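#lab-general

N.A. 3:47 PM
ok so I finally got the sequence cleaned up, no stray characters, all 333 residues accounted for. can someone with queue access submit it? mine expired

B.Y. 3:52 PM
send it over

N.A. 3:53 PM
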Amino acid sequence: MKTLFIYMQRFVLICGLLLASLPLWDSHVHYGLELAHAFKPFLFIASCLLLVIAVVLLFKAKHKAFFGIFTLLNTTISIALAVQLYADLKPLDLHSPKPSPNATEIKILQHNVYRYADEWTKVLQLLKSTDAQIIALEEVSNDIYNHIRTDAQIAIRFPFKAYRENEELVILSRLPIAETTFHFLGNRGYYAFTLLEAKIQCSSGTFSLIVFHPPHPTSKLNYIEYRQIYQKASDILTAIQDPYIITGDFNSTKFSPQLQAFIRQNKLVNPQVALQQYFGTFPSFMPPYLRIDIDQLLLSKGFQPKSIQALDATESDHVPIQATVLLNPSLNK
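B.Y. 4:20 PM
back already:
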């Protein structure tokens, strides 16, 4: 028990030193905190477990003052995390949750296929076997696009395509694509960040499908670009009149303050939250309960979520997601 007490004291001391030294490394803490939000559920579980241990030790240990403070600290952290998780997972306006009988059902597949994969056998098989009407892909190299373009079965199933060489964003569709726009969001050296918008026609009218892939906020430069690109994407969304779906590898989880702000600013709905279907998509080699959800599919007014799920892993480090949504343009008025 004495050894455990010493370890606990050291833990508290280290935490105190880290907090005291915050001004020395605060230029790097912003994206560290952004990433920490991705693991908020895990932190909440860890905090609750520490709270249980602290309560048990409080009644059995001799150093009751220390463990009393430790219990109070863990209680405060657990409550704060619980409140934040509730706020993150509380659905926003569901855009009229009662489906209209005139709504059109649309099934979408979204997948980051990972440009550095050695092969794409499972990816190509998925594209051939899916019953989705529209597919949105990210990190598509020229090599894999040539595989997609020259595959006769895929060409027949998805006659309409939105693609531009070296852009790495692709839309495959069974529904006619009326117009395609690549919006420039910024660049880093030779690599350009773009947002792909395709206006798609269906029986209920026209809607936009948007593919978005901002940088990951894992360095100071990336974090700055990440925030700027999110804001530029919001500016583009503001000008879109039709109902739209925005999907892709957002490099943000549903717990991210950046994604939360993006959803509020554009009045979007996250089907995972609305339907309470929570799952992670990255990295694919981890068990499902240890993956984080950086792949997103969000809906504007005029759409309603019906179902969403993660699919089996392919050669990519992301797993695909598939969603069924209901389009009712009258809700966009």
